[in-house]
Amino acid sequence: MVNAVDLRLALVSAAMLGFRHGLDYDHIAAITDISSVQSNARDAMRFGLLYVAGHATTVAVLGGAAVAFRMALPPASDLWAERLVGVTLLVLGLYVLGTFFRPGTHSHRPRTRITLLINGVLWIYWRLSLIFGGTRVEAPQVFKQGYGTSSTFLVGVIHGLGAETFTQVSLFLAAASLGGTAGVLGLLAFILGLLVMNTLMCAAATGLFSAALTSPNALRALSLATAAYSIVVGTIFLFGSAGRLPSLTD
Q1: Nearest-CA neighbor of 190 among 15, 56, 9?
Q2: Rounded to two decimals, what is the model's pTM?
């Protein structure tokens, strides 16, 4: 049985972990990615919050399982998840860089990282099927129009699965040890902290890109910065060196 003082301290710690987790490198990349391709500030905020909702849903499901079964994620899951995030960041960065040098593409919504990966797999399948007698003329695609309500939410869900950073694993460990009502409260506190941080981040990204829309040069500079950020951070994640990145909250 957890006493009232210890419970309050645990809840504050969980909320701080959630707030801290919202400022991780992959969250910055995803939210700026989503915000940068919207046509107005309202859509940028709405789609950014959809990503946050998807991520929070995954945290709720995984954390709920930790509370119910008193078990945490296996340590090895963080390593493969980190590399998966690295691949998606590299794909995004290279795609943004490619569209930057193709005239006439900046007015269209670029595909999400998840869309690019899925369509890449479908394209390979399509090419192999042609070799072995397939007759389909065009490669199959998902989310052909880029970001939408369901695809943006799905990106958040998959990022929740593929970005189990130290803070999130710590939450699951704490929830598993608390268990019961205390564990559920700890999980909710973590999610609240995550939502607060990422809502602030969505608002900041929305304001930044909305201001840049008035200047083509500023928008191009932000697009290049987004691509460079994704490529550099993605490479670091891909080689399993995310732990060497400086903390954004120290």
Answers
A1: 15
A2: 0.73
